[in-house]
Amino acid sequence: MEQVSWTRMEEGTREDYEFLGSVFHDFTSAAHVDNLVRLLKALEGPNLGYQIDRYGHSLQSASRALRNDESLDLVIGALLHDVGDSIAPANHSAMAASLIQPYVDDETHWVIKHHGLFQGYYYFHHLGGDRDARELFADHPYYESCVRFCAEYDQNCFDPDYPNVAIEDFIPMMEELFSRESRVPGVAPLGMTADSPLP
Q1: What is the torsion angle, in degrees rounded to the nearest 10, for the CA atoms of residue 132, residue 135, residue 136 and residue 138?
Q2: Contacts of 38 (CB under 8 A, 6+ apart)
Q3: What 3-state class would DSSP assign to 84?
Q4: pLDDT digits (tens, 9 = 90+) for 46-66
Q5: Is 140 helix (H, G, I), strand (E, B) or coil?
Q6: CA distance readout (Å), 150 to 12, 72, 74, 143, 147
Q7: What separation in angstroms does the CA of 4 have from each of 23, 28, 29, 98?
Q8: Are 110 and 94 in contact (CB under 8 A)?
């Protein structure tokens, strides 16, 4: 396999970085959806006291969104909204939102980023917290969208009898969404030349 000759990035040339960008793009494009599915499947296993595991919860959330004819962005946002539970439990919402941010609309990104706080409406008060903590964002244009997401695609998605859509049926949707060009401004992917326009 061809590789660069240096061990310090400061020694690289434009040609090196164009080459590296091409290799990186080919590798990540081929593996992106598979890697996300592996992250999702890491949620399989113990129910942690619920009637279903977090993987089943994720499939149920996305299945309900799909059957309600939600946008592709929201369906995949629902599928991945808790994907950080196993590796970033203290900030799983922010992690999931970061994973989808380059590819989804601003509303979906905001809803997934804040769903953990908004979901607290259903249980914070039982643990001595403020169930109305979400009111901090009451004037935000996506406030109602996040309230609705938690009501329809999160708090009610722990039903062991609900007929989930199979992960295989979501894969083409994931491939479509993650094949979009990045919407994140100012981020130059490896291999972008100095005269390339930013996305």
Answers
A1: 170
A2: none
A3: coil
A4: 999 999 999 999 999 999 999
A5: coil
A6: 48, 17, 12, 11, 5
A7: 11, 19, 21, 30
A8: no
Query: Rounded to 5 degrees, what angle do the CA atoms 69, 115, 144 make?
Result: 65
Give the whole-angstrom CA distance, residue 183 versus residue 84. 22
In 3D, which of 132, 86, 94 has the Cα closest to residue 112?
94
CB < 8 Å & 24+ apart, contacts of 18-24: 18/191, 18/193, 19/191, 20/190, 20/191, 21/189, 21/190, 21/191, 21/192, 22/191, 24/189, 24/190, 24/191
Higher pLDDT, 24 or 82: 82
Q: Is the model's pTM score more than 0.90?
A: no
For residues 129 and 192, give the distance between their C-alpha atoms in angstroms, rounded to a whole number: 47
**What is the rounded CA–CA span in Å between residue 154 and residue 162?**
13
Amino acid type, 143: Y
Domain 13-178 is of which CATH architecture? Answer: Orthogonal Bundle (1.10)
Domain assignments of the chain as residue spans, ordered by start: 13-178
Tell me how long the chain is: 199
Backbone angles phi, psi at 161, to 5 degrees: -95, 0
Look up residue 59 and give its two tokens: 């499939």
Angstrom distance (rounded) from CA 136 to CA 99: 24
